Amino acid sequence: MDYLIWILIIVVMMISQSFLSGSYQKYRRMQTIHQMRGCDVAKLILERNGVYDVTIVPSKGGTLSDYYDPTRKIVNLSSDIYYNSSIASVSVAAHEVGHALQHAEGYGFIALRNKLLPATQIASQLGWVSIFIGLISNIDFLLMFGIFALILIMLFQLVTLPIEFNASSRAIVQLRSNGIIEDSEVASSKKMLQAAAFTYVAALISTILNILRILLIRGNRNRD
Ligand SMILES: [Zn+2]
Questions:
Q1: Can you give the C-alpha Rg of the chain in angstroms?
Q2: How far apart, in Å, are the Cα atoms of 86 and each of 38, 59, 83, 165, 171?
Q3: What is the mean pLDDT of residues 47-68?
Q4: Residue 31 contacts residue 221 (beta carbons within 8 Å)
Q5: Where in the chain does DSSP place strands (E)?
Q6: Residues 81, 93 contacting (CB under 8 angstroms)
Q7: 90 alpha carbon to ligand 1 midpoint, in Å?
Q8: Which of the four pLDDT bands, split at 50, 70 and 90, describes residue 36?
Q9: C-alpha to C-alpha distances, 46 to 43, 97, 110, 129, nearest whole angstrom
Q10: From CA 17, how far away is CA 12, in angstroms rounded?
């Protein structure tokens, strides 16, 4: 049974990755009518919302390595997003700026996620190690510790979802109200952002399935 869950996890991750890369390949080729580059989109949205202390930089990472760094107040955009004016570029740029806007106005779930962050970082470092050692040495305490670590990671991923969905819905509102995209382009922009958000849903699903899998393995052992 537990290996079936393992296969399911791999299938979920593969579907979400191919959904994202397929959507990205499609929408990076689709030019927006107004042809604004991702970096200019980010700058315009920040200005229109009265946020002047956030910097926009091209990131050194690869494809879709875009993120907002709240500690340094920097929107990092991958070069394809930064320099181009495709549906993918303007959508992802607006989404990352959406995180900067959330930060600027103290959006509730961010504070909650920041509270969970230090413990989650420890959990991600120790969780699987603890499960692995617990399994080979048959020490139940280590196995239980690992399961609690995974539950903590699951909670963190759960709190991340409303933050991601909110950043995307802000992005669509900003793109449209600032005349960056036209009504006819809204559906494409939404689809691009939904594909990106689905990776967060898939990560949550795979953590839940992993918890189930380890609980099953533990249950079988205790029965033997
Ligand atoms: Zn995001």
A1: 20
A2: 8, 18, 10, 21, 15
A3: 94
A4: no
A5: 55-58, 67-69, 74-77
A6: yes
A7: 14
A8: very high
A9: 5, 7, 19, 42
A10: 9
Distance CA 160, CA 204 (A): 10
Q: What is the C-alpha separation between 109 and 185, in angstroms, rounded? A: 29
User: What's the pLDDT score for residue 61?
Assistant: 86
Tokens 């990472």 label which residue? 61
Question: How many A from CA of 113 to the centre of ligand 1?
Answer: 13
Q: Is the pTM of this model over 0.90?
A: yes
Taking 80 as the threshold, does the pLDDT of residue 31 lie above it? yes
Mean pLDDT across the stretch 86-114? 95
168, with CB counted inside 10 A (0-12, 13-18, 19+), is buried
**CA 117 to centroid of chain Cα atoms:** 14
What residues are labeled active site? 96
3-class DSSP state of 31: strand
Determine the distance separating the centroid of ligand 1 and the alpha carbon of 186, expressed in angstroms: 18
Are 125 and 102 spatial neighbours (Cβ–Cβ below 8 Å)?
no
Q: Over the stretch 146-167, which tens digit does the pLDDT of each residue have?
A: 999 999 999 999 999 999 999 9
Q: Which residue has the tokens 């107040």?
A: 73
